[in-house]
Each structure stands twice: as structure tokens, then as C-alpha cells.
Amino acid sequence: MPVGQHTRGRQKLSDLIVEDVKRWIVAERKQPGDRLPNEKELGELFGVSKSTVREGLKALEVRGLIKTRTGPAGGAYLQQVSLDHASEPLRNFLHFKQLDGHHIYQLRKILEPELAASVIGRLDAVHLGLLEQTIHFCEKEPHNEDELRAQRVAELEFHNLLADRCPNPLLAFMCRFLNDLLRDLMVYKNAWEHRHFGEANVNFHSALLQAFRDGNAEVARRLMAEHMLDAETHMHEMEAHVGAQQLLMPAGQRHG
Questions:
Q1: What's the mean pLDDT in 41-68?
Q2: Hey, what CATH topology would domain 3-78 get?
């Protein structure tokens, strides 16, 4: 449908171009790497001027949906929106919502067990080896704060590796998004130090790895559910510890 036939109030023509192009991508089953028609062709397709098309293409590029190339093979090409490009605006939106561990684990307790069950039979030797590497890395005694932080990040990477093999793209994105939120929360609250948290994570991850190797979905789901309950408890303890420390600081030095 030409843009001029839209009746959605006073929405900018370039924004309507964005919506029309997205519908066209779905209708034509376009894939990353496919080239869009040139500006003249798009203008004729949607019934708008070349300048409006150009503005719409710029908006699509900002959204991460296309990449503009120059040269003989130049033009606008579709590209897969990266996880960071999709996740960061949502995390920014939530930045001032006073999130805590309870909010995140309220969802993780539901989603992570399903994620664990969904990857049964989808983890080959390479993926199992990567999971095992994160476990071995986290088993080591950290010698400083940087190593401790790296271990906390590696613990989350264990879950991200599972998301990489999840057959449900929405479930995979939500789990990764929550992992990013959890990482951000630990960074902003400086909630890293908790020896028992690390030990518990290693134990659960080791048991989960065995369930993945055995191909046992029910055991994987049960273990992950127990893991999330345990992790939530440790997260609450870390947040309480950080809160108590900040109360003891001079007002000008408090963060969070």
C-alpha cells in the first residue's frame, strides 16, 4: 500500500516508510544480505519522494535493520539486528525503574528451566566443551576483584551458551536479555563478592552439564529450577550486603 494511503494521524512519512518496508520484508520473505530496491524504485513502490525514502532508509539503518554500502555494489542491504542493538534500548528503558534481583529472578525462575529442557539433543561436543570451559574457569580461586568479576560474567555466559542453542528465538532472546540485566545490576551495585554463590553455581552447572550429556530433559528442567531458586537467594544476600555497606559510607560516597 502506498504511504500516501495511510491514515494514522500525523505520523511522519519517513516513519511510515519504515513500517511499509518492514511489512514488505515479511511479505516477500526477505533475508539478511538481500538488497533493497534503490531509492527511485522504493519511491515509486510507496508513492513518496526520493528525500522521504532517504530519510526512511536512514531510520531503518539506525534501527539496525539495514546497512548502506557504497561503490559499484552499493545500496541498502538487509542485516540481522544484533542482540546488543535490540537489548540495549530496552535496558535503557528499565534503567530508572529501580530493578532489583527479585524482579529479574521472578522471570528467570520461569524461563531458564524451559531453556534447559529445550536444548536437550541440540548440544554437540563443541557446545558441551564450551560449557565445561566456563565451569573450569569458575572453579579456580580468584586472586583479585577483576578475576572475581570475570567469573561472575562466565557464570552468566554458561546460560548464554544455552540460549545460543535454543530452538525458540523468543525464549532465547528473553533469557539473554535477563542475563544482561543481571550483569548490569551486579555492575551498578558492585555486587560481585560472594564465595558461596560461586561454589553453588559451579555445582549446579556441573550437574546440568551431565544432564545435557545424558539427554535428560526432565532432570535438566528440575536442576535449573533449583539453580534459579538458589541463585535468587544468593542474589538477595549480595544486595543486602551491598546495601549495608553503603549505609556505612559517607553520604557523598554512596552509589547504586
A1: 88
A2: Arc Repressor Mutant, subunit A (1.10.10)
Listed residue (1, 228, 21, 251) closest to 104, CA to CA: 228
Q: What percent of the chain has pLDDT over 70?
A: 85
The span from the CA of 74 to the CA of 72, in Å, is 5
Beta pairing partners, 75: 69
SS3 76: strand
Domain 3-78 matches domain 83-253 at the CATH topology level:
no
SS3 79: coil
215 or 42: whose pLDDT is higher? 215
Q: Is residue 206 predicted with pLDDT exceeding 60?
A: yes
Instruction: State the pTM of this model.
Output: 0.74
Q: Which CATH superfamily is domain 83-253 in?
A: GntR ligand-binding domain-like (1.20.120.530)
